Amino acid sequence: MPDNNHLHNELSDSVNPAYHQKPGKLNSAKEYADGIQKGNRAFLSRAITLIESTKNEYRELGYSILEKCYDSTGNSIRIGITGVPGVGKSTFIEKFGTYLIGQGKKVAVLTIDPSSSVTKGSILGDKTRMETLAVQENAFIRPTPTAGALGGVAGKTREVILLCEAAGFDTIIVETVGVGQSEISVKTMVDFFLLLMLAGAGDELQGIKRGIMETADLVIINKADGQNIENANRARSDYQHALSLFPPHPSGWKTPVQTASSIKNYGINEAWEVIKEYYEQVNGSGYFINNRREQLVYWLHEAIESELKTRFFSQPNVRKKLAQLENEVLSGSMNPARAASELIKLSR
Ligand code: GDP
């Protein structure tokens, strides 16, 4: 059993720096699992920290917890929300989440912050986000910075989704910043993908890769208020037209384009109506289950890759040799492919 000091030290440096919480006493996997399934949020938080840990022993404990909760996972609708910084994601999620709680839902919001591992900067920033939602008893908000990228851009979000489901959250919102790879990865772990956009913000696709728009299940032209209403309506028909030119979704779903304003509380319940309609359609057709099954196989492959990488790079001899090989590659005395093969030979 790993000791608390280690976990605490680790928390203060590489793991989830946006979430400073003393882990307290470590319990057994069964105690955590029982607590989580009874809705104990402190246990849920700690289990997430363990899953996100860079230390094998903590992660193993995290996985044991997940295994013990596995039967109570899956009972939620998983919604991905993406859009460029400033499009209004956190304001929208605050209103949307609050609305859902009013509808009797339990909402977990997982924000993937693709913090640059180079600059250690954070796109989502340190600003307090979703203050009203955060204090609700039926809401759980958890940032997942991806700096140091455990398991790629989406980190351990997939496992975190499952833990939240085990804790009784029936609506999981995964927020990503639509400027990198994270939204593509998130698409493989959600049932429904919502893209927020702005009207008249210059470049037609606002830095969002064309592929993302193609995979959206709902496009919302946000900030449709004040003088922006007309622009938003125009953008809505433009985007609706653009979408009609894309190939049909494998689910048979036709992606609607709506307008919304979080500050005017407009378009929020309409978004939920679309999601409900989608759910009914794909559940009836069998697509929902099939999609989740395909995602499971994808997750398996991703998990293998991620675990291999973590184990490989955590070996001290590999780390040491890597620094030396980098220099040799830079000086031109060795080519990268050869260096990689030397390094892999070293690993256990
Ligand atoms: P994020 O970076 O995508 O999470 O965007 P935020 O939710 O932080 O919003 C960015 C800015 O847009 C903030 O100043 C918000 O107050 C503003 N904003 C958010 N939603 C709306 C809206 O519906 N209408 C208008 N006019 N401003 C909004």
| SSE pattern | HHHHEHEHEHEHEHEHEHHHH
Shape: globular
- The beta-strand count equals 7
How far is the N terminus from the C terminus? 24 Å
* Radius of gyration from the alpha-carbon trace, in angstroms: 21 Å
Could you state the oligomeric state of the chains shown? single chain
Any idea how many domains? 3
Strand content: 5-15%
CATH architectural category of the largest domain: 3-Layer(aba) Sandwich
Characterize the biggest β-sheet.
7 strands, parallel
The CATH superfamily of the largest domain bears the name: P-loop containing nucleotide triphosphate hydrolases
Count, helices: 14
The overall pLDDT average reads 83
The CATH topology assignment of the largest domain is Rossmann fold
Q: What proportion of the residues is helical, as a percent range? A: 40-55%
Q: Structural class from helices and strands?
A: alpha/beta
Pick out the low-confidence regions: 1-23, 116-121, 147-151
